[in-house]
Design goal:
The strands form three sheets. A nine-stranded mixed beta sheet has the order 3-4-5-6-9-10-11-12-13, with helices on one face. A two-stranded parallel ribbon has the order 1-2. Strands 7-8 form a two-stranded antiparallel sheet. The protein is built from eleven helices and 13 strands. The protein has 377 residues and is of the alpha/beta class. It starts with 20 loop residues before the first strand and ends with a helix. It has two domains: 17-79, DNA polymerase, domain 1 (Orthogonal Bundle); 84-361, TIM Barrel, CATH 3.20.20.70. The structure holds S-adenosyl-L-homocysteine (SAH) and iron/sulfur cluster. Residues 129, 131, 133, 136, 138-139, 191-192, 225, 245 line the site of iron/sulfur cluster.
Length: 377
């Protein structure tokens, strides 16, 4: 039954506090296996899946086409609950950050970023992160554990509840597709998704399944610090959009900022990107580049970057550094950010400067969990 990719202290729990097995996060055949072991007929699995992923029900009582005794049995053995929101903060720019409490009391953050033509949900893959990138506040916090497929999906389902965006909520009521505000998903919250690979794959397959949450792979982006050995497989298994946190144009600087570069240096990361199966002119790999004043933001860095990325279907997201106390870094000047972007654009790259969202509620990139940790110390 366990779908965890890791053992030992990083493993997520497989049952809730009451000993019930979460059904969210199990593939349809796995639901068949578990319910038939409890003497229920296999055909019930499809009905249950429909209630969970299309209707968004949060308790078995609402599964009204199942006999009452079946509903009672399901409620005894299984859970389909959502995590509790410890806090829900709304930024002046509309961004919403939820601090969610998991069944074992661990907490994660999920952020919704509404924009003019889309709404993006930023999903966490781990509690904390083992990679100690120097500019990232999440990286200063110890990894407590991986998230299960269940906990990864729960973030998306929680957001659909909160935003009231289930495609067929209510009896037979089918909302038109275009009323949905949550259109895109980025695995860019806390944690390194490729270090929790099996659970991410399991969750995203259900997320993309037309009978599951039915989110197109074109609307899902996975962000990695550059775990070169897993990048190709990720493309083969999932075919989602890829974002790579690059943040430097030389190994020397990148290793200082991101110690993982010593294991997977630039050349290896970029070679893996060259072979990323779904990359094309219309589905470019996003390279994220944080602007750190006098560290990685010179014109020479920009020129080197144009050479490094040659031959890769790429676009560069220039990210003004979100400052946090004690980081030891400052954000580059507006003028230098402009100059950096111009060099990339003149070389033919798309290089938008990402407008920071939710800074006032510590929901911006690299700030997750900061305030909650502080509140407890
Ligand atoms: N671990 C994955 C995904 C989570 S981090 C990764 O590293 O890609 C999501 C993004 O936020 C990464 O590009 C990361 O480099 C960026 N980030 C981290 N700290 C930041 C900060 N203080 N300011 C701006 N971006 C930051
Ligand atoms: Fe982990 Fe990504 Fe933060 Fe690095 S930037 S510490 S990989 S979450």
């Amino acid at each position: 039954m366990s779908i965890s990719s890791h053992t030992g202290r990083f493993s997520p729990p497989t049952v809730d506090a009451a000993g019930r097995v979460p059904l969210i996060g199990l593939a349809l055949p796995e639901v068949v296996t578990t319910i038939t072991a409890n003497d229920l007929p296999a055909f019930r699995a499809k009905q249950i899946w429909h209630w969970i992923y299309k209707r968004g029900v949060r308790n078995f009582t609402d599964m009204i086409n199942l006999p009452k005794d079946v509903r009672v049995l399901l409620a005894e053995k299984y859970s389909i609950e959502r995590p509790d929101a410890v806090t829900s903060l709304r930024s002046t720019d509309g961004t919403i950050k939820w601090l969610l409490s998991l069944s074992d009391g661990q907490q994660i953050e999920t952020v919704f970023i509404p924009e003019a033509k889309r709404g993006t949900l930023c999903v966490s893959s781990q509690v904390g992160c083992t990679l100690t990138c120097k500019f990232c506040h999440t990286g200063t916090q110890p990894l407590v554990r991986n998230l299960s497929a269940h906990e990864i999906l729960q973030q998306i389902m929680f957001a659909r509840d909160a935003l009231d965006e289930w495609p067929c909520s209510g009896e037979g009521k089918q909302q038109p597709d275009d009323v949905s505000k949550l259109t895109n998903i980025v695995i860019m919250g806390m944690g390194e998704p490729l270090f929790n690979y099996n659970n991410i794959v399991q969750a995203l397959k259900i997320c993309m399944d037309p009978d599951g949450l039915a989110v197109s792979k074109r609307r899902i982006t996975l962000s990695t610090s550059g775990i070169a050995s897993m990048i190709r497989q990720c493309g083969d298994d999932l075919g989602v959009n890829l974002a790579v946190s690059l943040h430097a144009s030389t190994d020397e600087i990148r290793s200082k900022l991101m110690p993982i570069n010593k294991k997977y240096p630039l050349a290896e990361v970029l070679e893996a990107c060259r072979t990323y199966p779904i990359a094309s002119d219309v589905r470019r790999i996003t390279f994220e580049y944080i602007m750190l004043r006098d560290v990685n933001d010179s014109d020479d860095d920009a020129v080197r970057l144009t050479k490094l990325l040659r031959g890769i279907y790429s676009k560069i997201n220039i990210i003004p550094f979100n400052e946090w106390e004690g980081s030891g870094f400052e954000c580059s000047t507006e003028a230098q950010i402009g100059s950096f972007a111009r060099i990339l654009e003149n070389a033919g790259y798309e290089a938008p400067v990402r407008r920071p969202r939710g800074r006032d509620i510590m929901a911006a990139c690299g700030q997750l969990r900061s305030a909650s940790i502080r509140a407890r110390t």
